[in-house]
Amino acid sequence: MREVLIEAAFQLFMENGFERTTVDDIVTRAGVGRRSFFRYFPSKEDVVFPEHERCLTEMSAFLTTSTDGEPLDAVCDAARLVMRMYAANPEFSVQRYRLTREVPSLRGYELSVVHRYERTLAHYLRQRYAGDRNGALRAEVQAAAVVAAHNNGLRAWLRGGGHGDAAKTVDQALTFVRQTWDDAGESAESGGTASAPEDDVIVMVAPRGAPLWRVVQKIEKTLGDE
Amino acid sequence: MREVLIEAAFQLFMENGFERTTVDDIVTRAGVGRRSFFRYFPSKEDVVFPEHERCLTEMSAFLTTSTDGEPLDAVCDAARLVMRMYAANPEFSVQRYRLTREVPSLRGYELSVVHRYERTLAHYLRQRYAGDRNGALRAEVQAAAVVAAHNNGLRAWLRGGGHGDAAKTVDQALTFVRQTWDDAGESAESGGTASAPEDDVIVMVAPRGAPLWRVVQKIEKTLGDE
């Protein structure tokens, strides 16, 4: 029933445009009653994005179990759930992408969905960073960055007609975000010397004018601290 | 006329709520005709956010003239225009903040406005990074990060009743974003050794297992390169 309504709706949106298609048109084409439509979809906009509620639920469930590892890695993995939902049905995703670009009310709907994903990621990061200085700020900035990168990759794939590898395109974009904070890493937090997140790298910061013996002393101290 | 309509509208929103106030109520209270309202405001939502159009125009104009300096500094300065608009009228801003949290259609309106600011910043950064590898991606991620940080600071100020120093709160949040990319900086781009963006700091990266003599050699080489 639900699938039949989605298919009927998209046929009509493609034929007559989103605005000119009514819920009555959709149920007539699908051969079901008007009440059936509203049992599945609160509004005409919802039928365009039928999988986001499920995906939001999956994302929350995934994050609830992600208590170990790097918080930023967990939210990148969570964002990939959205990419996978799009990639599971390239043709439908590309159709919807084109439709959404043309219809202001759909763009508004999409913005609100993206905002809910971002809030879900930020909520998770705030919990992981609880007690850190600037924890909430870091959580919100990183969630926004992950969503922006994910959407940059996803849009590139959609613009390409959904023909390429969505996972690869989105992964490349997410790698940019992870590298940003890997590189900023611990040394930025504490100042002076500190070990980098990776196991095999040391990052050393010293005043440019420092004499070499003092730089060496600092390295020896850092190595001794490990 | 415009100011009178805004004041009448807010009185009524506070007294009766946003949903229960009609445009007819507003023009009656303001003592003007219905057509006057729509001359200034396309919808009831627009009267709640009367300054954003002007601010968006100012932001674009400011960025058009910002062709020198660090691109990220320019977008942080541009974002501050929004904070200043809020800080110019703390009482009104706090009232609106409370109203927006309660009314879904206003939250939707606000999301679309925030999205327009973000697109304006991203558009500027894309131009500044044109030709760079990952330029568009970097532009979109940084724009999202700046907007998230700005809004984190602004919301903290609004939650505090608009009593503190909005500029200070927002500046602290924006500093976090600028430090993120300062620290990731050049060394992340080129790998190995490189000078940090600040004039008086050197960043050195070496394998953790490297013998000390090789680390020193690398420092000497770096210092020699300066």
UniProtKB/TrEMBL annotation, chains A, B:
SUPFAM superfamilies: Homeodomain-like. Keywords: DNA-binding. Residues 1-59 form the HTH tetR-type domain. InterPro entries: DNA-bd_HTH_TetR-type_CS, Homeodomain-like_sf, HTH-type_TetR-like_transc_reg, HTH_TetR, MftR_C. This is TetR family transcriptional regulator. PROSITE patterns: HTH_TETR_1 (PS01081), HTH_TETR_2 (PS50977). GO terms for molecular function: DNA-binding transcription factor activity; transcription cis-regulatory region binding. Residues 22-41 bind DNA.
